[in-house]
Amino acid sequence: MELSVRRETLRLIEVVRSSRGEIDSVGTCMVTLMHDGITAYGEGTPTGYDGVTADDVVAAINADAVAVLGRDLRDPEDVLDRIGRWDAPAGARMALDGAVHDWIGKAAGQPTWKLSGAARTLGPTVYTISMAGPEAAANAVRDAPAVGAFKVKVGGPDDIASLEAIRAVTPLPVRIDANEAWDLDTARELTPHLRRLGIQLIEQPFPVTATDDYHRYREVPDRLPVFLDEGCTDAASVQATRSYADGFVVKLCKAGGIRGAQRVMQAGRRAGLGTMISCMCESELAISQAAQLAPLADHIDLDGHLYLREPPFRGLGLEDGRIVLGDAPGLGVVPS
User: Fold this and answer.
1) Where in the numbering of this chain does the Mandelate racemase/muconate lactonizing enzyme C-terminal domain appear (predicted)?
2) Residues 206-260 pLDDT 10s
3) Which domains are assigned to the chain?
4) How does pLDDT run across 23-39, given as a tens digit for each residue?
5) CA distance 179 to 153
């Protein structure tokens, strides 16, 4: 068995703006796994807001990944369980978990999604619109890929004009993401306007620590459904937040890969919460990893690959607002 990992910088086609700031590139990590004549790939992304860097992910993989995998992959379920127990950054577990899932499909000569019983074509996915003025926001929607919904980054009352401009140019569902930027007064003020515009839901309106605001927002008449992103990372946090959230956002980079994210989603189902499968700005490799779990999700937010200037992997399609997975063995994507 041979394993290598490299850090890669993904350059974006445009600057992405949110309440957290601006980015024009992101760092990710690519794993190449060679075993039994098969070459498989996995991607692992640092989440950033927990202080983990791509260098941390690379260091963990270089230090321990070969030992975690063991001598061979004849019992991949056992290997995946070991990855799940590995005390490493979630991005490192995500990369190794993805490579093993790619290897499983290639070893069987089948797409991984077919082996798991998933569909090749996913439900409608979104395209995220950066924080911008009304004209720029409307133009971004007009120029967007042919997706099935939009997610708009917001920060406060000034965003209502931009949302009105967006609604004027699209009838598609619109969600918003505040990335912890609101307080309760802002939520109370904006909710009637957001309802008037048909906004579907809001991600992480308040800071993770502002649990009282989440509880009090539940008392606001005709409030928006609230989905947690930064405030929900694993199965334990699903249980902790069920009293003040309507759903949560699942990302492989938080949960540690396909296996870990599946457990989080199952915990959410048991708690009666809605689920959204989502991503960071990632390549088609990471999106293919996350897409294996799309059948378990109520909402699909897999658009990170659509922002890349020079995609390092190819193989996904986009038809009628829906992601179409590759039909080649494994995760269905190949290096560009």
Assistant:
1) 134-221
2) 999 999 999 999 999 999 999 999 998 888 889 888 899 999 999 999 999 999 9
3) 2-109 (3.30.390.10), 115-335 (3.20.20.120)
4) 999 999 999 999 999 99
5) 8
